[in-house]
Amino acid sequence: MTSNPETIAPASVGLPNVDYNRSALAPGIVHIGCGNFHRAHMAVYLDDLHLAGAAQDWAILASGVREDDRHMRDILAGQKFLYSVIEVGPGHQTVRTIGAITDFIAVEDENAALIAAMSDPTIRIVSLTVTEGGYFLDPDTGTFDAASPEIAADAIMPDHPRTAFGAIIAALRTRRELGELPFAVLSCDNLPHNGNVTRDAVVGLCRLSDPELAKWITEEVAFPNSMVDRITPATGPHQRALAAELGLHDAAPVTCEPFRQWVIEDHFPAGRPPLERVGVIFTDRVDAYELMKIRILNGGHAILAYCAGLAGIEFVHEGMRDPLIRRFLEAVLDHEVIPNVPPVPDVDLTTYKRQVLERFDNPEVADTIRRLCFDGSNRQPKFIVPSLRDGLAAGGKTDGLILLSAIWCRYCYGEDEIGATIAPNDPNWPELQAQARLARLSEPEAWLNMRKVYGELGTDTALNQRFAAALGSVWCNGSRQAMETYLRHL
Q1: What does the angle CA 79 – CA 83 – CA 86 come to, to the nearest 5 degrees?
Q2: Separation CA 25–CA 4 (nearest Å)
Q3: Short-list 85, 127, 57, 53, CA closest to 260
Q4: How far is CA 121 from the centre of its chain?
């Protein structure tokens, strides 16, 4: 182990040493959105490479465009940009210190420092985790929404952008003017075809102010698709207590499951780190992997979460140990979700589902039901509604997915089935609560008429009738009896 002082945390931080010389690292990646998932996923893969003595010119410059990013920068700067990752499995924990992030770009309203960093030709990849709702998608079409206020503001003032996409465009403009190769833009968010979605956001915004540059971006800039997976709960009291028990004095610990997966389309004209050496899968079939993961894992999370949320259950593993909720989850996956998931290379879907359920059942992760319930207005259209739409189109079973929509509606009413208030848990909570109350009182069709969530499905008369019956059952008899009835009629 080297004794270089740049390789260890300050004594006040109390983290384990990093087993490589961080002063030898040079950044090749700017990452926008340095939350828990990025720090437990991409940064860990790069750290694995650094531990192997590889990819020293592929360290990460963290960055962000939100107030939360500013707070994270302050914390990590006080720890020399080191932090702990605690992998938690049943009955064991493994702690490591991650050193792959070498700096954190100043977070500014107009992103001048971020643009300057991305303009540097040594940066060959710009990656993002800006959440599923951060791509400015029109809920009706699933395409880029040029009418979004934030997008409109960046279109008017492209030299002073406030969004991540506006900053990317400004940096690409500089790279073009300097005659430098453009960087690749790599989304690490849970979106189908996330590279295509990112390209549409960047090009769509650019067309509003500079169509010629937009054409150049379309022709010259790579937006590889990717699929990412690792259950990473938010850092709360439980996670901080675990870090303290392990002797860590870390203001930004991350806990996560041992499992991780990353599948990427191999399209990086300016080069990339040799991530295949640390388990990353490069393939031209990313779409198959991502659809499997979004429908089974993310969809499974949604099915579990709202059933458990109504029951007042706090943790994911506790929801898994409720026999009825688990039976309902497995039945909907088996009969309504998996039948509409296309084959995946070298993967058995039933085995994959079993592995997913084992991951949900890991008590050490201490993931919360509330976290899984958060942002349903953005997540349901991606994780649940497509399975419902496909099932209806194929004439297959859909009663469980319709019941799940009714249970989500009941959750958004704002009170669980044991009488406790459910605190606002969605960026669109006031609208969801209003629609949930209207659906209960007189107009059950009001729920499916939320076009941002259900799109054209809200015009399906037969579906509305089935939803109204499911919601009536949940309100009159409770969600548990509604689930029992569903299971009896399989």
Answers
A1: 155
A2: 13
A3: 85
A4: 29
Pairing of β 254-256 and β 92-98: unpaired
For residues 43 and 379, give the distance between their C-alpha atoms in angstroms, rounded to a whole number: 25
Tens of pLDDT, residue by residue over 36-56, are 999 999 999 999 999 999 999
DSSP-assigned letters across all residues of 224-239: --EEEE-------HHH
Helix ranges, 124-181 (H): 149-156, 164-178
Does residue 138 contact residue 146 with C-beta atoms inside 8 Å?
no
Sorted by sequence, the CB contacts under 8 Å of residue 93 that are 6+ apart come out as 86, 87, 242, 246, 364
pTM over 0.85: yes
Residue that the structure tokens 């393939």 belong to: 283
Rounded Cα distance between 303 and 120, Å, is 45
Phi, psi of 347 (to 5 degrees): -130, 130
Give helix 429-441 / helix 461-477 axis angle, nearest 10°: 90
Residue 474 to residue 444: CA distance in whole angstroms: 12
Q: Which residue has the tokens 């303290």?
A: 244
Query: What type of residue sits at position 159?
Result: D
How many angstroms separate the CA atoms of 451 and 457, rounded? 8
Q: Which of 406, 421, 232 is nearest to 312 (CA)?
A: 421
* 3-class state of residue 315 by DSSP: strand
What is the rounded CA–CA span in Å between residue 260 and residue 445?
Answer: 40
Segments of the chain scoring below 50 in pLDDT: 1-12
